[in-house]
């Protein structure tokens, strides 16, 4: 039963090259951040959770949950939270990466996580540019494309969270069955 190892090995070609990670290592930065590393990690987890929660509320509304809730006031309430938590999550994520780029960069699920983040940004930019202005001006229901973008958003950001969770603990190296 080595399913986790098979997936981890399949991701090897997509990892950040080790010599790049070694080149990014900065001992002075690591030493200066060491007393704060736990706090930065906790803030990262908290802001990722808050970001995903805010995105989920918005996407669920776009999918048709709570249709009586007007979209424009919801956006005014949720978007500042999205922007602040995303900014803090990105800053703390970069700090954690540069704290120990060799260890963090060698995690099995880092590259897929970064891919899902990039796809999440692309989906958000595409939706905001192509569909959101029309949805705000329209008194009719949401379009299929808006629903598809919202469902894609939930999937992509959910995968970011899942990859982050999978990075936290390596796959078991030994099967401890009965």
Which structural category do the helix and sheet elements fall into? mainly alpha
Overall pLDDT level:
84
The tally of domains stands at: 1
The total count of strands amounts to: 0
Order of helices and strands: HHHHHHHHH
Percentage of residues assigned to helices: over 70%
Number of H- or I-type helical stretches: 9
Largest sheet: none
Low-confidence stretches: none
Q: Terminal Cα separation, in Å?
A: 13 Å
Protein name: DUF2214 domain-containing protein
Transmembrane segments: 38-57, 77-98, 110-129, 149-168
Keywords: Membrane, Transmembrane, Transmembrane helix
Organism: Acidocella aminolytica 101 = DSM 11237
Keyword list:
178 residues, mainly alpha, elongated
Would you kindly provide a written description of the structure presented here, covering whatever features stand out?
This protein has one domain (23-168). The protein is mainly alpha-helical. The chain starts with a helix and ends in a 10-residue tail after the last helix. It has nine helices and no strands. Helix 4 packs antiparallel against helix 5 and helix 4 packs antiparallel against helix 9 (144-168). The model has no long low-confidence stretch (mean pLDDT 84).
């Amino acid at each position: 039963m080595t399913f986790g190892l098979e997936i981890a090995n399949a991701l090897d070609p997509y990892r950040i090259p080790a010599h790049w990670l070694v080149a990014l290592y900065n001992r002075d930065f690591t030493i200066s951040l060491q007393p704060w590393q736990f706090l930065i990690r906790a803030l990262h987890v908290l802001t990722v959770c808050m970001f995903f929660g805010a995105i989920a509320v918005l996407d669920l509304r776009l999918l048709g949950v709570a249709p009586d809730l007007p979209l424009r006031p919801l956006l005014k309430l949720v978007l500042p939270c999205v922007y602040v938590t995303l900014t803090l999550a990105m800053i703390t994520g970069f700090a954690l990466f540069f704290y120990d780029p060799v260890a963090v960069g060698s995690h099995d699920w880092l590259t897929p996580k970064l891919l899902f983040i990039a796809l999440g940004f692309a989906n958000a930019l595409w939706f905001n540019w192509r569909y959101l202005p029309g949805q705000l001006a329209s008194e009719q229901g949401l379009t299929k494309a808006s629903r598809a973008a919202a469902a894609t958003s939930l999937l992509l950001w959910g995968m970011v969270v899942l990859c982050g969770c999978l990075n936290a603990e390596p796959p078991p190296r030994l099967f401890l069955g009965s």
